[in-house]
Design a protein that fits this description.
With 37 residues, the protein is mainly α. The chain has one domain. The protein is built from one helix and no strands.
């Protein structure tokens, strides 16, 4: 049971962090474009 949870976390955490970072980068790029206008 614990091993399964560790496997899920090992695969899920980096996946979630990656999506989070990508969303932040997209938001920053959108904000910069709006400010440029």
């Amino acid at each position: 049971m614990l091993e399964d949870i560790k496997m899920v976390l090992a695969l899920g955490v980096p996946f979630v962090l990656g999506i989070y970072l990508i969303s932040l980068l997209r938001n920053d790029s959108v904000r910069r474009k709006r400010k440029a206008k």
